[in-house]
Amino acid sequence: MPANTPQQEAPVVIYTDGGCEPNPGTGGWGAVLIYGDRIKELSGGAPDTTNNRMEMTAAIEALSALKRPCRIVLYTDSEYVKKGITEWIASWKKKKWIRRSGPVKNVDLWQRLDALVEKHQVEWRWVRGHTGNTYNERCDELAAAAIQAQRRGGSLKAAENL
After folding, report:
1. Helix-, strand-, coil-residue percentages of the chain, each rounded to 5
2. Rounded alpha-carbon distances, angstroms, from residue 55 to 8, 28, 46, 74, 113
């Protein structure tokens, strides 16, 4: 755990989601950060990407939005992201980002995510998507809106509710 993270402080709860239509294709991501009664929503997208890259980008952008080391409970509906950061990454790093089948995909994003995780105490949790979880559904809405914004040739501004 980073030395600057107080044990007794309540965690920041983060929900993330990303998607692509089609995959690969136009992508979007969304994140909801919750700290006490404060909620911050973030979203964005890319014109030519993959679902996995958008899932990872959601987590990266959410963690990047934090201004100091924090305790975090991060919910993702992506087993790729959760298993990648909690189970697979140590081996990938040890083997210099090479797997039996070749180079690890999305190394640039894995390295960014890994660096961000080093700054915080993150507890990763998987949540089943599209099952009525309020914040997971909101992330899905944000990602879908970002996809539509990309198709219109623009981008969405992050919304913040305080």
Report:
1. 40, 30, 30
2. 30, 9, 12, 12, 11
Which domains are present in the chain?
12-157 (3.30.420.10)
Catalytically annotated residues: 17-18, 55, 77, 130, 140
Looking at the DSSP bridge assignments, the partners of residue 27 are 20, 46
Q: Is the pTM higher than 0.70?
A: yes
Tens-digit pLDDT profile for residues 115-132: 999 999 999 999 998 888
Q: CA-CA distance, 127 to 130, in Å (whole number)? A: 9
Q: Which two tokens stand for residue 33?
A: 């950060």
In angstroms, how far is CA 32 from the centroid of its own chain?
10
Q: Is 133 exposed, middle or buried (0-12, 13-18, 19+ CB in 10 A)?
A: middle
